[in-house]
Design brief:
- By secondary structure, the chain is of the alpha/beta class.
- The protein has one domain (2-311): Aldehyde oxidase/xanthine dehydrogenase, molybdopterin binding domain (Aldehyde Oxidoreductase, domain 4), CATH 3.30.365.10.
- The chain has 8 helices and 9 strands.
- The protein has a 5-stranded mixed sheet. The chain has a 4-stranded mixed sheet with strand order 5-6-7-8.
- It is globular, with a radius of gyration of 19 Å.
């Protein structure tokens, strides 16, 4: 069971699976969400956690949408948010896949590639081949050392770990790897390095795209580790930057690497048009950080609330 309480559009997702001879055979997932009816169709795919790009012969995905009175007849005003529901559902799905890899004692990258490679269908494998390409590109850029998670606990006050997550948003596919440090005394999480392999089709302006991707990752990282909205029964009580902190330069990653995968390596594909890049890089980041925390500490996060870095326990 994985739960998340974001700033807007809360979502709770649970997943369970059946395996046979190390292969994923059945997945059941359920998502509870709040959204205006005009957006319900766009969230239909969001009920599927983990990603439907993975090979799962038997899958059941359900979504429960909380009624409009709860959304509109509330004293708390909500607004737009960059990729409002994607990070939550991806946190559940990609943490779930990571946990299955750990149970199978498989490397997290290899496990995902196995599920992607053995799958069939989906536009004759068009989007799936691109998904495989971004996972491989992210691992290569990071210098991924194949091994199961978690790593053996080390001595000292600082634990390190790495985690991967994959997602797609519409026609854009993204894989991200986070390298983190966890202070054993304080519980503080610092994301030291981020790697993003990003395929949004034809790249027209590489520098603008790189900055867009970096901004999306920093936005999602701030949302995961620091941002928090507090409220009472009448109003929001987060009134300033002290009560509602965001990511600062001191807490930002030391390195961010972006790999632009300009389309699918399949020579039989037509040239891709350009797709959207504004939100896709937000989607897998929380999951990548959570999986890195598991790799470093052996602690699996099953609930993520705003301000992860302030409540992650020291031990």
């Amino acid at each position: 069971m994985y739960l998340i309480v974001p700033i807007v559009m809360p979502a709770a997702t649970s997943s369970r699976s059946t395996t046979k001879r190390g292969r994923l055979t059945t997945v059941t997932s359920a998502t509870t969400n709040t959204t205006p009816c005009s957006s319900r169709s766009s969230l239909a795919g969001g009920a599927s956690a983990p990603s439907d790009m993975y090979r799962v012969p038997n899958r059941r995905a359900a979504m429960h949408v909380v009624g409009l009175p709860l959304v509109w007849e509330t004293p708390l005003r909500t607004g737009n948010l960059r990729d409002p529901n994607g990070p939550q559902v991806t946190f559940a799905g990609e943490s779930f896949i990571d946990e299955l890899a750990a149970v199978a004692k498989a490397d997290p990258v290899e496990f995902r590639l196995r599920l992607l490679t053995s799958a069939t269908g989906d536009d004759a494998g068009f989007k799936r081949a691109r998904s495989i390409a971004v996972v491989k590109a992210a691992a290569e850029k990071f210098g991924w050392d194949a091994r199961p998670s978690p790593k053996p606990l080390s001595s000292g006050d600082t634990l390190t770990g790495r985690g991967i997550a994959y997602a797609y948003r519409n026609q854009t596919v993204v894989a991200q790897i986070a390298e983190i440090e966890v202070n054993r005394r304080t519980g503080r999480v610092w994301v030291k390095r981020l790697v993003c392999a990003h395929d949004c089709g034809l790249v027209i302006n590489p520098e603008a795209l790189r900055r867009t991707i970096e901004g999306a990752m920093l936005h999602a990282l701030s949302r995961a580790l620091y941002e928090e909205v507090t409220f009472d029964t009448e109003k929001v009580t987060s009134l300033n930057w002290r009560s509602s902190p965001t990511l600062t330069h001191m807490d930002a990653p030391a390195t961010i690497d972006v790999v632009m995968v300009n389309g699918d390596p399949n020579p039989d594909r037509p040239d891709l048009p350009h797709y959207g890049a504004g939100e896709a890089a937000c989607k897998p980041l929380i999951a990548a950080v959570a999986n890195a925390i598991y790799d470093a500490t052996g602690v699996r996060l099953r609930r993520v609330s705003d301000g992860m870095s302030r409540w992650f326990p020291s031990y």
